[in-house]
Automatic annotation (TrEMBL):
Entry-linked InterPro entries: DUF427, DUF427_sf
Residues of the DUF427 domain: 30-120, 154-247
Organism annotation: Rhodococcus koreensis
Coiled coil spans: none
Name of the protein in its database record: Uncharacterized conserved protein, DUF427 family
Pfam families attached to this UniProt entry: NTP_transf_9
Amino acid sequence: MSTALTHAAASQQVAENGRISIEPNRKRLRVFFGGQAVADTTRSVYLFEKGHLPVYYIPRDDVNFDVLEPVDATTTCPWKGKARYWDLVVGDRRAEQSVWGYDEKLADSLDLSAYVAFYWHRMDAWYEEDQQVFVHARDPYVRVDVLPSSRHVAVFVGDTLVADTVRPRLLFETSLPVRYYIPRIDVRSEFFTASDTRTSCPYKGTASYLSFTGSESTDPVEDAAWFYPFTTAEASGIDDHVSFYPDRVRIVVDGTPVEN
């Protein structure tokens, strides 16, 4: 049995240095570049490092090394060891130093020699099973819950009431404040215009933004609110709902202002 398979079959492993750990990702993972899958595996692991987002590490046996060119570049991590790099080359496209791996185990770390990792944004697409994943690897310990509510939520910009509802959807996301999503019909659309801003979240989808255009007594506020035209399955309850930044507007829930 290969080292990678041993790791993937095990539960979480924590390095002696206490800074990193790995845990199996039991979903099929595929990485696409230049129109082809350059990695396809059911044996990847999450690598967790304190202060960083999780990263998928993929068994070398499940990576197409025919499209990897080794380069004379290295970096050193005090917690993982010395990394070497490869360029990814498919046809006339090249992603420089986009793949890295650790050939040797650091004394108080974990043995990562059976794996390589890819820089996320240098790839064309990532899939878990047949669902595309955006922005970064999904943390298995992050949960998103969308619940219908009868709380009274009012939103003000200055003294101008811009949204008022008793049927919000409340979004609870691990380690983040509660977000109040208001039905579009309960938002005073005459005060808002579409913004060019877009952001993406691996747990919710790609957000579009709305700017407050101002009123007789209130100045404009850029990107005061956002919404998801299309959501992931986990966040499907916020379709056609709008949420507001509590540091750019004033949100009052059941008579109590929401803190920034």
